[in-house]
Each structure stands twice: as structure tokens, then as C-alpha cells.
């Protein structure tokens, strides 16, 4: 039974680490060990417009308006930059696209890979200087843009391919002011004029976007406003040792709730979303950050996710997600306004929940969301009191140890008694080695007499491994812990320990726990008991420092509790 208990423990621990390693591989762009890498399909799904303008939403009569013409070859373009305290946004007057968004309060960081560290150790090279720069969301490198325009009607309308004129005004948030605006006006296209007004507010990662549609023609028109986010399918890389848990489009509404769509599924035309709803939003998600079009006022909208083929040898394929809204019919000379909000910023869970229903779901917790969400809530509350994320993790382990004290004490008492009777059991096994049936009976008799539960030590591990894995996802996904220091050399809990000190301490503490536990009857198994902490410690070299801190603290408290119980029972 002792061997069975050990086998169960190691199987649980090993499988948990295998799953963590597989997740780490997938986050770094490598295929999963459990499924082959998907093959991209070159063909684009139906409905993708060559001009990048989505088809009009379905009307009551079922008709579809034609997409607008492609961008004029020599269309004028001017870049206008707006600066606030938290955003630096560049707007292209060609269509009024947002083509760049810098987040000056969030800086890039170097990627401390194990290979680089080892090379520096071997060659004694000085670590190259790294200059942090603001994190950038919308950018030309990934063809990442936020676009809006008009479709519908019987002819062309102003789209994101239509040149616009920027009205003169301030371009920076002035001291004492709470907002700055940028107004863009298009010429008449099909008798319709579009005026876009961007409103930037102090301290906000949201941009108010109003679309004033003016019918300057001689016939009624029923325009539709589209809001879309466009980017290529490249994986986002950043300054952390762990790259994004998910990169790609996401759609939310009350009918289908939250749904992410992989780029490879779009390639294969396997997009399954709820296309019509009375609420909801669309987003482009990446590690720690996201962009989203939000319209919280109820109203019918049509969602789309499309692949846009790029020009061969010139531009890559891009992927678009967006919404289309049908506006009221405008008589000649009439106008109407549609308002939306563009979010471009960090995945701060508490702030996201305030912006739109379900927006906090862009923060990817993987399969263990049900545990990760309350775990982050508890961490957030503790951090509000402690003020340091490293000590917050230590406090979390302490609270869990207190909550599981009785259960752990029972397990450690069982293990201490097992260590105390180990010589007696070994003598009995040697004496009855030719009679396995009697040996098993005698062993169970000893366990009953000493009140030992041979699998009693398994339960704490079963309970704590899901918490350990959920914390892994919290550390991987929580932007609040990005570049969060603990003390001394640990300046970022979301990446690995740059000097491997925490993993080495964790390895030593695990070895000390092996010494405290009863020895295995099988000599080969006992050797494995000493080898496994070393193997796992090496694997922990690439895990986030916060996760290793959690496990090290758990080991230290477990050692202290087991040492006390061993002393109480007189076990050496």
C-alpha cells in the first residue's frame, strides 16, 4: 500500500507538470504534445472583401449592399498624433484609422531566455543594454488597426478607405483639462458625408468615437456603420519569458457569451459565432493587453469574423472582427449620430468589468477559470492590504495552509507513523518475502494497530495541485503582476528567476522533504524519490518566479508542520 500511495502521488505530480510544460510550449508558439500543429488553408472564407470593407448587414428584405471600392492608389494620407497621460495614439486621415497606440505606463522588458543566460555564463559576456519602450498595440508591423466606416445604400459611401480632413485643434491633453478631441471630416461620397470625432479622456484607455452621418444628397439613404479591428496572424511576442496564452479575435454577446476564435479556424472557415444580437462587443486579444469595440447601448448588431487575403509578395493576409449597425433612414438634409467606445489597454480585470459586461473575459485563465477567478480575487484583496505581489503570494500560501491545517496534520501524522514503523515493516517483508499474501495481511495489520492510513498523504496533494495550476494561469495572465517586483533580485514575478536562486531553494526544500518522509521499501524507488525533486527543480527554472515562490513557501511551511509533528510523535 505504501508503494501504491507513492505511485499515486508521483503520477498526480508528474501529470500536472506535464500539463504545465505543454501549456508553456503552446504559449511559446510550439505545437501541443497532444495534438498536431494545424495546417493553414490559403483560401479565404466567403464574405471577405478585397477592399477590407465588410459586407452590409442583412436587411429586413434580405438584401446585401455591395462593398465599397478599394483604396485609391494615390489617396492622401496624414498622420495625426494625440497624447494623453496614458495613451499616445496616431490617427491616419485616410479613413480615420487608428494605426498606432502606445501605452507609456507599460514598458517592454527583455526576454531572459535560459540560452542567453548560459551563453553569458560560458563566454563571460556582459549582458547587452536594453532600453525599455512603451508597449504598442495598433502598429504597422502587424497591420493592426481600428477602423470604422459606412456601408449600405445603393452606391458607395465613406469608408475607412475614404480620405478625411483633420480639423485644427489641440493635439495633446493640456494641464487642467480632462479631455482632448480630434475631429475628422470626409468629402461627400454618394451624397453622404461622415464626420468622426475621437474623444480622449485623462487616465482612460478608452476612446469615445462618434460617427455623425449627414445626408447631403437628394434621395433618402439607410446607412450602416461598421466597427472593425484588423491585424495579421502573427504571434505577439513581448518582454516576458511566457508569450501570450491566446492571440486573436474574441466575440461576446448574451446569446453565445464569450468566444475566442483561432486564426487557424478562420483559415479553415470554421468560425461559429452568434451573428445577430442586441448587445455585445468584439475584441482582439493578446498577452496582457487587448483592444475592443464597445457599444453598451442595446440595439441590433451583426457580428463578423473574416480573413482578408493580402497582396502576394506585398502584404500578408489579415484577420478582421467587427460589428455592423443599421442607422435610421435619413431624408435629404437629415443627419444622425452613432456612438461607440474603443478600448486599447491592459487587461486589468477590475477595470475591464466596469467598461462592458463580460469584458473581463478577455483575460485568459485557460481551463481552470473556475478556480483562477476566485484565486485572483483573493490575491487582489490581499494585495490591497500588503501592497507587494510577492508577499501577497506568501500570504496566500499561509492562508491556504491555515485552511488545510487539519487535513495536512492528519496526512503528516500518517506519514510520521509510517516512518516510525518502517524498520518493523522492512523486517516483516524480509521475513515473509516468499509469502506475498501473508506479507500483505501482516502489513495491513500493522497499519490498523498504528492507525496509519497508507494513502492519507495523497489528499493534500490532490487538493493543492489544482490551486497550483490555477495560480500558474493567474501569474501567466495577470497584467498587474507584469514587472511586479518582490525583493532583491526578483524584479518581475511574471518571468523566471534570472539567477535561478528560487528554483534551487525549492529543489533543496523538496529534497529535505524526501528525507523527512518514510523511505520507500524498494531501493530503486527510493533513488527515484531523490532524483525526482532535482528533475522537477530543473523544470521550474523556466516557470514564473511568482509560481516558484508559491511552491517554495508551501514547501517551507510543510516542512515546518511535518517537523513539529515528527517531534511530537518522537520520530527522528
From TrEMBL:
Instruction: Name the UniProt key words of this record, in alphabetical order.
Output: Cell membrane, Chaperone, Membrane, Protein transport, Transmembrane, Transmembrane helix, Transport
Per the entry, what this protein does is:
Required for the insertion and/or proper folding and/or complex formation of integral membrane proteins into the membrane. Involved in integration of membrane proteins that insert both dependently and independently of the Sec translocase complex, as well as at least some lipoproteins. Aids folding of multispanning membrane proteins.
Query: Subunit structure, per the record?
Result: Interacts with the Sec translocase complex via SecD. Specifically interacts with transmembrane segments of nascent integral membrane proteins during membrane integration.
Domain of life here? Bacteria
Xref: InterPro entries? Membr_insert_YidC, Membr_insert_YidC_N, YidC/ALB3/OXA1/COX18, YidC/Oxa/ALB_C, YidC_ALB_C, YidC_periplasmic_sf
Please state the protein's primary subcellular location.
membrane
List the Pfam families hit by this protein, alphabetically. Answer: 60KD_IMP, YidC_periplas
Keyword Acetylation set for record: no
Q: Which NCBIfam families match?
A: PRK01318.1-3, yidC_nterm, yidC_oxa1_cterm
Q: Does the keyword Cell membrane apply?
A: yes
Protein name according to UniProt? Membrane protein insertase YidC
Cellular compartment(s): Cell inner membrane; Cell membrane
Q: Where are the transmembrane segments?
A: 7-24, 389-409, 452-479, 499-516, 528-552
Family, according to the entry, reads as follows: Belongs to the OXA1/ALB3/YidC family. Type 1 subfamily.
Q: Tell me which residues make up the Membrane insertase YidC/Oxa/ALB C-terminal domain.
A: 389-567
Q: Where is the Membrane insertase YidC N-terminal domain?
A: 80-378
Q: How does it sit in the membrane?
A: Multi-pass membrane protein
